[in-house]
Amino acid sequence: MDDHEQTRDRERTKSTRAPGPCGGAVYGLGLIGAAVWYWQQADGFGEHVVGLLKALVWPAFLVYEALKALGA
User: Fold this and answer.
1) Domains of the chain: which residue ranges?
2) What one-character-per-residue DSSP string does 7-46 give?
3) Mean pLDDT throughout 17-35?
4) SS3 64
5) Does the pLDDT at position 58 exceed 80?
6) What is the Cα–Cα distance from 25 to 31, expressed in whole angstroms?
7) What pLDDT is attached to residue 40?
8) Contacts of 54 (CB under 8 A, 6+ apart)
9) Is the separation of the CB atoms in 31 and 58 below 8 Å?
10) Left if phi > 0, otherwise alpha if psi is -120 to 50, otherwise beta: which for 35?
11) Rounded to the nearest 5 degrees, what angle is found at the Cα of 50, between the Cα atoms of 40 and 66?
12) Which of 7, 8, 15, 43 has the fewest CB atoms within 10 Å, measured from its CB?
């Protein structure tokens, strides 16, 4: 295998990354904030479990409410 083929193989196998460098950090902080919010709102064990599950998918709730407010 010559150098040209090796370079082409390396370019083909490069991994793709997320577009923003801090997207994971923003999601992580949002996850923690949502977990605290839902935890404080819960009264029983079942509500705490549901609250933690909601904290995992908080962006979906955010987008839903934003679209609802825009009338879409």
Assistant:
1) 20-70
2) HHHHHHTPPP--S-TTHHHHHHHHHHHHHHHHHHH--SHH
3) 79
4) helix
5) yes
6) 10
7) 95
8) 34, 38, 61
9) yes
10) alpha
11) 80
12) 15
Question: How far is Cα 27 from Cα 33, in angstroms, rounded to an integer?
Answer: 10
Instruction: Tokens for 55, please give them.
Output: 């904290």
Pull the structure tokens for residue 49.
């479990």
Token pair belonging to 2: 């010559």
Q: Tell me, what amino acid is at 61?
A: F
Q: Is the pLDDT of residue 57 over 70?
A: yes
Rounded distance between C-alpha atoms, residue 66 and residue 3, angstroms = 52
Residue count of the chain, please give it: 72
Q: Which residue has the tokens 């083909």?
A: 12
Total-model pTM: 0.58
Amino acid at 50: V
**CA 37 – CA 67 distance, rounded (Å):** 22
Whether the predicted pLDDT of 18 surpasses 60:
no
